[in-house]
Amino acid sequence: MTDRIKVTITDGVADVRLNRADKMNALDPEMFRALGETAVTLGADPSVRAVVLSGEGRAFCAGLDFGSFKRMGDGNASAPGRLTMRTNGIANHAQHAVWAWRDMPQPVIVAITGVALGGGCQVALGGDIRLIAPDARMSVLEIKWGLVPDMAGLAIMRGVLRDDVARELTYTGRMVGAEECVAIGLATRIEADPYVAALEMAREIAGKSPHAVRGAKRLLNMVEDADSRAILLAESVEQEALIGSENQLEAVKAGMARRAPEFKDVG
Length: 267
Known about the structure:
Layout: E1 5-10, E2 13-18, H1 29-43, E3 50-55, H2 66-73, H3 93-103, E4 108-112, E5 115-117, H4 119-125, E6 129-132, E7 137-139, H5 153-160, H6 163-172, E8 176-177, H7 178-184, E9 189-190, H8 194-206, H9 210-222, H10 228-242, H11 246-257
Parallel strand pairs: 2-3, 3-4, 4-6, 5-7, 6-9
Antiparallel strand pairs: 1-2, 7-8
């Protein structure tokens, strides 16, 4: 997509790699822009059924580029008011780099190696599922630099962490090892090679009915904010659209015949 991100699409799986290994895939303006644009582009591609998001080199993402902190220390930080501008729907440009992955219709599996720190932790939280290497670490690191998480991380954390845990991590900025990440909900599970495992999972998802998978993600995305009445109705709307559809009938026929299904892409 850009020099900051590499994308390969094979058999419905988009393999997305943050491509700034010399900087541990740190977030600069070009990376922010590339993350948002890539998510939107892939989200609009009906042939993409699942996404793997990972980082080149020794880290997933080390967070904000150090040059940005240096400018803040020199008193050259950008005007705060610019962050309150909603440039992408409900989000600003930095939040869009994370929220776009949560908002896209296809499931996103994140492979975490090395570190996912600060903004990098928030990018990882934008995925549906996070597979982490045994020696990887994550941190809500913004407090170290006198800042708060502001890339949609808090909006997402409320659905994955207990309130007191989210507060402790945000107030302290401490490093969290892989086992604890799984125990508290920052990561889904530990994998010896999270990238390989993420690709395998994505291929499995890509083999399911894309209409059903997208419907499931829409429902899962709404449960944090909607009341029970709205969720129950949404379940019914999604199911009514699926029953008797071409892909749903193909799932039944393939299951009965014990053969691999041949699903049509979302139109």
